[in-house]
Amino acid sequence: MDRARPMRADAVRNRARILSAAREQITLLGPDAPMDAIAEAAGVAVGTLYRHFPTKTDLVGAVIAEHTARMAADVEAAADRVDGGAGALAEITALVHRVVESAAADRAVKAAARELGATGGARPYEERGGTAMGRLIAAARADGDLHPDVTVEDFLLLLATAPTDQGPAVRRRWLELFLPGLTARGRPTA
Amino acid sequence: MDRARPMRADAVRNRARILSAAREQITLLGPDAPMDAIAEAAGVAVGTLYRHFPTKTDLVGAVIAEHTARMAADVEAAADRVDGGAGALAEITALVHRVVESAAADRAVKAAARELGATGGARPYEERGGTAMGRLIAAARADGDLHPDVTVEDFLLLLATAPTDQGPAVRRRWLELFLPGLTARGRPTA
DNA sequence: GGCTAAGGTGAACCGATACTCATGTTTATC
DNA sequence: GATAAACATGAGTATCGGTTCACCTTAGCC
């Protein structure tokens, strides 16, 4: 593979512009942002857009794949810091706050993805993030800071249900209510 | 007011059928269920549908108003039981489970309402529900079972973020994680 | 039973939006 | 700097869904 000759320079540039414009316009106009608007924002004709992404589902999928990759990298970095001796629970708490804010910023993109059934190429990143999250959970549990039955799925649930359509203050309050259910002190083991 | 003569019998019947069909079709086909599908399911022509509800927003608004009324009645009943001597925290817990399941059943309707900005005539019911919820909170706090800083808004946040797009088991787990943040034992007062 | 206003009908209208394709332009290679 | 393969263009197509309206039907009252 990789037999094909490299993309032409202008094609590379346009592809990047389209991805950026898609994220921008979806955030601005909502999940139903028209392809025409995305094309115009990218400074490109619709036909070009469709050359790079044959379908809107493909385009949105590519945008969430980028998002997921960023998230996964953040989780991995946190797990690495914990391996380096940092406090696991503190890392998790800070990470969760960051990830939730990040999800809120891209909430329209996620809505578009759900609406279209777009998974893009996000799957591998999801797995990497999940693995790293598992490391963090194990470390925090070893410290005795996390309730023993807490799993990666619980954190995905947290991520999936965070109030992304409200302000940061609401999310902080929400986490203040949610996180105790995950910690050892917050919820009795019984 | 109420000066107008009563609705014709067939009009009353059709109105009810339309509301029922709307709920059914939106649940079945998603938030974007076409008006034509709703009309057909109601056994009525589109024109009739538009006679009763001039706009899709009005129709969806009427459906969520019904939903909200049911919820509010449930909250008030619980508050009344607590006034009658029932345990406040237990009532709240059971209530929250019921309300969340109910919200899950009508999740597509709520999505449609959000999408259209339809508030319908739900406002008064929201207020009645809020007032009753306040009574429940006060009672539970008096029992020393609820964290002192918990408000009605916190419960609205819970309701707004419940994972309605997943199975009941996931919601049970989610509540298991969330509720400790509201109780006195679950979260340190410090 | 006949009258009339309230109610019902559904084909047609209209705007929006994802997607196509015939044609023109540019990059990269020799 | 000429050539061919990539790439870009954007007017046009197809479809879909909310809404309208001129005309028909029926309930309810005398």
Describe this structure in words.
Two copies of one chain form a homodimer. The first copy, chain A, has 190 residues and is an all-alpha fold. The first copy, chain A, has two domains: 1-54, Arc Repressor Mutant, subunit A (Orthogonal Bundle), CATH 1.10.10; 56-190, Tetracycline Repressor, domain 2 (Orthogonal Bundle), CATH 1.10.357. Chain A is built from nine helices and no strands. Chain A has helices at 9-29, 35-42, 46-52, 56-83, 88-105, 107-116, 123-142, 152-161, 168-178. The first copy, chain A, starts with 8 loop residues before the first helix and ends in a 12-residue tail after the last helix. Chains A and B meet through α8 and α9 of A and α8 and α9 of B. The structure holds a DNA duplex (30 and 30 nucleotides).
* Sheet with the most strands, sense and barrel status of chain A: none
Question: What overall geometry of chain A do the principal axes of the alpha carbons give?
Answer: elongated
CATH architecture of the largest domain in chain A: Orthogonal Bundle
Proportion of residues in β-strands of chain A: under 5%
Helix content of chain A: over 70%
Helix-strand makeup class of chain A: mainly alpha
Mean pLDDT across all amino acids of chain A = 96
Task: Provide a count of the helices of chain A.
Answer: 9
Please give the number of β-strands of chain A: 0
